[in-house]
Amino acid sequence: MAATSSPKEPSADDNTLTLDYWAERWESGSSGWHEADGCQLLWKHFKQLFKDNFPTKSAEDIRVFVPLCGKAKDMYMFYKLGFTVVGIEYAAQPIREFFEENGISVKEKEADSPFTTSQDGRLILGQGDLFNFLPNSGNAYELPFPCYDIVWDRGSFEAINDELRQKYADHMWKILAKDFLYIIQACFYDRREYKGPPLSASQSDLENYFGKDVCVSEIDETDMMVGSREEFWKGQGLTKLFAKLYVMKRH
Q: 113 by DSSP, 3-state: which?
């Protein structure tokens, strides 16, 4: 169903942070979180992160997983570097737009499959509820590979309601390779000032939800209270807002 007007800006205290809400945001053109040129914080550090964590491997050896991927340009950038990329997105529109905008031809899709796949098989986007997609599930939502070496989580964990964050972390553990690199960009602010979305995520939040087997490091941040969005965030009651880049690895 096409939206005829922009959906109401929700609060994390109400019940509008649903999958259909986010799909409607795409349909109405209200996807202000999308970064058309990719994530600057990620690419500022990715080359060194990859070298440090996979010193004996090349991009062709690595599978990247992108939860709640939208049409993130980062997926195309990973793909062009030689990585195999799998993304999951609930809304159909950004998946279609991703392949069209990046000029990637796709295989003919099987009638009941949620997956759209590039002709070379290295870029696969699945449409549906993230929690339905698992390795070795034996159904239509079975992920293409049993585990993933790198996770790029930008706007995913921070979009998850508090009551689902533990379920999300548990779900992500099921798809991680033994020696994984989990890179996450998330907003950080005082939740007494603003309830979200996006929902603030601190280093201690990640440690609490992902558990004692993970080591979390903050490696960079960007002040979001500058530039064209400053007045918007001030209008939401915020005095400080940062985009933090965290890295998680197995202890």
A: coil
